[in-house]
Design brief:
The protein is mainly α. The chain is about 75% helix and about 0% strand.
Length: about 450
């Protein structure tokens, strides 16, 4: 059936991801990746200052909650029912989740750099509560949709549920701490708080959704056999126990007490072990023989993402063991490097690869004309280079001058920006095959059938 002739509810189900994906692209290109280029290059010339910290925090938030968060929410609404076999529940809160999350991120983008002026501090605090409300809508839909599959013990459903819950926890802490910053007339969150939020986002939210998709899809692509629910449950347990241990250590630090180093290092070691185990379940090193020839080049991006995930896990284990044996805190620079390996090398690369494999816009493009084989390799090479440069800037923190480190960060940002521009170009070009789905009202405001 042609898109223009679809029933409203069918159009909604097939295109529910669209406004979120478009918003994710807008945030990435206007704010997130742009700041990833400008902030370090300006710092290379002028040195870091308070504005550097403000815009670095804003960059991190726009990328993790804006760009990646919108893709997780939008594509999650599309994939959760397909992967669990259950229709989305509470469909009437999907539109509010889009508008609330959009408003929250937009207000944060506008207000944080000038939050010390007039009412902008209060607006920054308000942005956190709007994001919390939008993410609460998303968590409600996901957790209730997957509840039957969770009772069966389906690892994919468990990962969707845990990711949604951690997203809600992060949003609640972010809203509370932004309100505290406003009351204290601060323009940035303290470093201990941003570390906690980053820990939850990267290791609790992003990787949960990435692994939920990977465990279900990648073994099919690479003709691999999943190890069974027992092994996947064990890896999931390692990840959750490790995350909770590291989070408790971080919250103790926020409360003003000395950070329990053994607890933190142990938690990160467990997290690292889980992030080595999960990629091993996907068979990513095998040839993507189950994909059609026109789609096989995109598997390179997924394979690179799983390789980076394995490296991130090994680095977490290595640096945390070193801290454990020397009774010291886990160094900040390596942890920041691991976060950017996860953010660029794992999450962004998986988004780029899977978008071109599973989104209906790209599927329609493949029917009209097969994509050029170079596309998959170009994305894999570009994002691998960006990840390597960004990680090197922090992994070799003591051996590089600050100017060199900042330039490595800036160049990494330029390469990643170019890759996302290219993906956005292909996506919007593919939209020409669906003339009616540009109308957001058909997706986000149409009266839907009862859930």
């Amino acid at each position: 059936m042609a898109p223009g002739n679809q029933r409203p509810e069918r159009l909604f189900v097939e295109r529910v991801h669209l406004p979120f994906v478009i918003a994710g692209f807008a945030i990435a290109l206007i704010g997130g990746f742009t700041l990833a280029i400008l902030v370090p290059i300006v710092a290379a010339y002028r040195g870091p200052n308070l504005s550097f910290v403000e815009h670095s925090q804003l960059h991190g938030h726009l990328q993790t909650v804006g760009f990646v968060g919108f893709f997780i929410v939008g594509v999650g609404y599309r994939l959760v029912p397909r992967f669990t076999g259950h229709q989305l529940t509470f469909q009437r809160v999907i539109a509010p989740s889009f508008y609330l999350l959009s408003a929250g991120i937009l207000l944060r983008f506008i207000s944080q750099p000038i939050s010390d002026l007039g009412p902008f501090g209060a607006i920054m605090a308000l942005s956190g509560w709007l994001e919390l409300a939008g993410i609460a809508c998303f968590a409600l839909v996901v957790t209730t949709t997957v509840r039957t599959a969770v009772r069966r013990g389906d690892p994919t459903a468990l990962l969707f549920a845990t990711g949604a819950i951690w997203f809600l926890v992060q949003a609640a802490l972010n809203a509370a701490w932004l309100t505290e910053a406003w009351r204290n007339e601060a323009t940035v969150l303290a470093g201990d708080r941003t570390s906690v939020l980053a820990l939850i986002l990267f290791f609790g939210v992003h990787l949960s959704f990435i692994f939920a998709v990977a465990l279900r899809s990648f073994p099919v692509f690479f003709n691999a056999t999943r190890p069974g629910w027992g092994a996947e449950h064990a890896a999931l347990a390692l990840a959750q126990i490790g995350l909770i241990a590291a989070l408790v250590a971080g919250l103790i630090d926020v409360a003003g007490d000395p950070r329990p180093r053994v607890l933190e290092a142990t938690g990160l070691i467990l997290l690292g072990a889980a992030f080595v185990a999960f990629p091993a379940f996907t068979g990513w090193w095998r040839a993507p023989v189950k994909l059609r020839p026109g789609s096989q080049p995109f598997a390179l991006t997924l394979q690179a993402a799983m390789a980076w995930c394995t490296l991130a896990g090994l680095l977490l284990i290595g640096y945390s063991l070193d801290a454990l044996f020397t009774s010291s805190a886990v160094a900040t620079a390596p942890i920041d490097a691991v976060r950017h390996i996860v953010g660029l090398g794992v999450v962004t690369m998986t988004i780029v690869g899977m978008a071109q494999l599973i989104l209906p816009e790209f599927a329609g493009e493949r029917l009209r004309r097969p994509p050029a084989p170079w596309r998959g390799a170009a994305f894999a090479v570009a994002l691998t280079a960006a990840t390597a440069l960004r990680a090197a800037a922090r992994l070799f923190d003591g051996q590089l001058t600050s100017e060199v480190s900042y330039w490595l960060m800036g160049i990494a940002g330029i390469i990643a920006f170019a890759a996302i521009v290219m993906l956005a170009f292909f996506f919007f070009r593919a939209l020409r095959g669906f003339p009616d789905i540009i109308q957001f009202a058909a997706i986000t405001t149409r009266r839907l059938p009862p859930s």
